[in-house]
Specification:
Chain lengths: 233, 248
């Protein structure tokens, strides 16, 4: 068990964002969290990563380390790509070789450029590399592909699956997109105002794009839509 | 270079029209000297004016350094210690809202008739824009970037030095550019009030003596001083913020 939530509750002021959440995520699992805006997906992710304390209950990650991949690339515009990826070291983290990270996300050729000289998809890969360089056992991703165009997004999904399978970390992935959640995940957590339900994805690994045409893919998408009820994801 | 051409032509044209206008209408020299006489005054008094120009610039640069340094330190302090901000910020606004010319005589009482008064006047004017812009910059850091640093275990000092400060640099430079121009204003206001040194002193004494061409020459130099100080800061900005300019 890598992540274990026990009756985690978060309230801002008197209004609860979510109530009594309990779940377990196994080592090496890829779990997506989906739900309508304002359901607390991002808060949940920040709580797993220890950036936000729960109002009550707890989320236990044991001795495991977390790496964040944010919705925006959050690159420091005054640093080159390789210096951005190296940032965790300057903040006292143990890191892997920057060169390995650059080749993992296929950005060797732009390592001396500044962030603004890169496309959105490339910036998001830097974001990913900066998280991976600390060798986190848990990767927390907050809608990392939501601002990318559809083609880049599909490529990034495949890239993420490839990197995840190579690095064997546990991933908690927040998304707005039902097909994205199904394509990437082993399990999907549906977070609504009523609480949390979980739906398993019966697709084999490794995932291929052809699976998106399969019956079980569409079946899972339909189950998720029903679970989200009238909520617009 | 091309973008400098239209204003240069316009200025030349205005100088020409001014010369003609003053000569044709026979405006008295002590009221409105033609540019040729201003140039002559500039030429004949070159050594003396250069000395006074140097004095004013020295006061401005020292005052600017003092004022912007104070602005930066205060902004850092205000950002980190809420109590200091809440107690001191209203006083800073009060100082800013008081016309410097109104306190100049007091500065003379306190700091004497030498360079110190002018430096303090320049500092008083230049510190506020730096303070305000710095605080704006420190607060403009995206929350996700703060999350990133916290998730990487960053302490407060690292967060400030590696994220907030560099992020605030474009804001700081906006403040510095305003402050640089205001520093020259402050120095000259100080010179008006006390002593006969500096361009402000020349402007006042040449006024008494109705040496209007010399006065114009001094005004011209004062404006030149303000522009050069601003130019130096802008040049520095371009070097330091190459990553920022490239983005526009």
């Amino acid at each position: 068990m890598v992540i274990h939530a026990k009756q985690a509750t978060k309230a801002f002021g008197t209004s609860p964002v979510f109530d009594n959440l309990s779940f377990r995520i196994k080592k090496g699992e890829f779990v997506s969290i989906i739900g309508p805006s304002g359901c607390g997906k991002t808060s949940l992710l920040r709580m797993i990563g220890g950036l936000l304390p729960p109002t009550s209950g707890k989320i236990d990650v044991g001795h495991h380390t977390c790496g964040f991949v944010f919705q925006q690339p959050v690159l420091l515009p005054w640093r080159t790509i390789q210096d951005n990826i190296r940032l965790p070291k300057e903040l006292g983290k143990d890191i892997q070789a920057v060169e390995d990270m650059l080749s993992l996300v296929q950005l060797d050729h732009v390592k001396d450029r500044l962030p603004h000289q890169l496309s959105g998809g490339m910036q998001q890969r830097v974001n990913l590399a900066r998280a991976l360089i600390t060798k986190p056992s848990i990767l927390l991703m907050d809608e990392p592909f939501s601002s990318l165009d559809e083609i880049t997004r599909e490529n990034m999904q495949d890239e993420l699956i490839r990197i995840w399978q190579a690095s064997k970390n546990t991933v908690a992935f927040v998304t707005h997109s039902i097909p994205e959640a199904v394509y990437l995940s082993d399990r999907v957590f549906v977070l609504t105002a009523e609480g949390m339900t979980e739906i398993g994805v019966p697709l084999a690994r490794p995932r291929t794009r052809k699976m998106k045409q399969s019956k079980s893919f569409h079946h899972t998408v339909n189950r998720l839509q029903r679970a989200l009820g009238g909520h617009h994801a | 270079m091309r973008k400098h051409l239209p204003p240069a032509i316009l200025i030349l044209l205005m100088v020409g029209v001014w010369e003609l206008f003053v000569r044709i209408l026979g405006v008295p020299v002590y009221l409105f000297p033609p540019p040729s006489l201003v140039a002559q005054a500039l030429w004949e008094n070159a050594a003396r004016l250069a000395g006074h120009f140097g004095t004013t610039m020295l006061e401005s640069v020292l005052g600017f350094g003092l004022g912007s340094g104070l602005g930066l330190v205060l902004a850092t302090l205000f950002f980190h210690v809420r109590a200091v901000k809440e107690s001191t910020y209203p006083i800073a606004i009060g100082i800013q809202s008081t016309p410097t010319i109104a306190v100049a005589p007091l500065l003379i009482l306190w700091f004497g008739n030498g360079i110190m008064t002018k430096v303090v006047a320049a500092a008083l004017l230049s510190f506020f824009p730096v303070l305000v812009n710095c605080m704006k910059g420190f607060n403009a850091v995206p929350p996700e970037a703060v999350d990133l640093f916290k998730s990487l275990g960053s302490g407060k000092t690292q967060l400030f030095l590696k994220l907030r400060f560099p992020h605030a640099l474009p804001y700081l430079f906006s403040g510095l550019k305003v402050g640089a121009s205001l520093a020259v204003v402050g120095a000259i206001v100080g010179e008006f009030t006390g002593g006969d040194k500096g361009l402000g002193g020349i402007i006042v004494t040449s006024g008494f003596l109705l040496e209007t061409p010399t006065m114009f020459a001094a005004i011209l130099l004062a404006s030149l001083g303000g522009i050069s100080l601003l130019g130096v800061v802008a040049l520095l900005e371009k070097r330091v913020l190459h990553w920022h300019h490239a983005r526009d």
